[in-house]
Amino acid sequence: MRLLSLAALLTFSLSGCATQSANQANEAAAPTPNVVLAEPEQAEFRYEIEIARINQLLSDESLSDEELAFAYYRRGALFDALGLRTLSRMDFMRAIEIKPRLADAYNYLGIQYTELGEFDFAFEALDSALELDPEHPYALLNRGIAEYYDNRIKFAVNDFQQHLKNDPSDPYRVIWLFLAQYRESPNEALNALASNKQAIDEDDWANRIIELYLGELSEVEFLEQLTTQLRGDETLAERLCEAYFYLGKYSQRQQQWSKAANYFKLALTTNVHEFVEHRYADIELEQTRKQLQ
Question: With 90 as the cut, is the pLDDT of residue 229 above it?
Fold first, then answer.
């Protein structure tokens, strides 16, 4: 699932031991399904070409402040898509210094600070994005994710619920709301998931994730469907990035920590840097490793 990512980006184009033993025993007893592998996503050649062009453009002293701000923003978004977070963050900061009301730059900064675990900075950036653009399509989701990882679950549920109201047919909004609600009340979360599922197109592949979480689909059956019905604009690496992240979350619920860790590692190997699942697989992997200590 992309967050702000290329759709908006292109708009601005400028050309305890006993417990551990028990868990390990449970994991050993559980069969490990065969997984699907894909070649890691390769850096878009056109991104690198555009970065080179923007570098040349930035040397043009005749640019207006608005053009300069959008040039830095654009390059920052490209760096972000390539996984170059530090360079990206520097450009977003430059863009904001020149054009302080650039909501998209604040949104990106909020995402990156969440990845770093710098939650105070993340909330400040995402609150700024929403203040500047209350209808921003992704800032509410991103603030909910920051709240989720900062263990502010009630706030996360509120933001995810509001985000879902804006598009009840989006399966990923449904899934993130479920993940937060499950931390508070598993039974209520499952009931809400089943109810929210009704608004989602049955043919949407992400619906299989919901069916997995509801117990309507086994882990093996889910894995068998990973390569089916790929959209024309979807790569196998993108599909696997999403699938393995949510399988990792599923395995956490089963307290199968080693399996969860492996799924998060598989999500990271896809190199789909701009997907929310790739961004936060590292956080999930670190949290899962703590359960294995």
Answer: no
The beta-carbon contacts of 227-233 under 8 Å, at least 24 apart in sequence, are 227/36, 229/203, 229/205, 231/205
Q: What are the CA-CA distances from residue 4 to residues 10, 31, 105, 218, 286 (Å)? A: 10, 38, 10, 32, 25
- Cα separation, 235 vs 237, whole angstroms: 5
Tokens representing residue 156 in the block = 């996360």
Question: Helices 236-253 and 171-184, interaxial angle, to 10°?
Answer: 20
pLDDT of 98-134, one tens digit each? 999 999 999 999 999 999 999 999 999 999 999 999 9
- Residue 52 class from Cβ within 10 Å (0-12 exposed, 13-18 middle, 19+ buried)? exposed
Q: For residue 2, report the phi and psi dihedrals to the nearest 5 degrees.
A: -85, 145
2 forms bridges with which residues in the sheet? 275
Q: Could you tell me the CA-to-CA distances from 160 to 22, 73, 186, 234 in Å, in that order? A: 34, 27, 16, 25
* Spatial separation of the C-alpha atoms in residues 23 and 92, rounded to whole Å: 44
Q: What is the pTM of this model?
A: 0.87
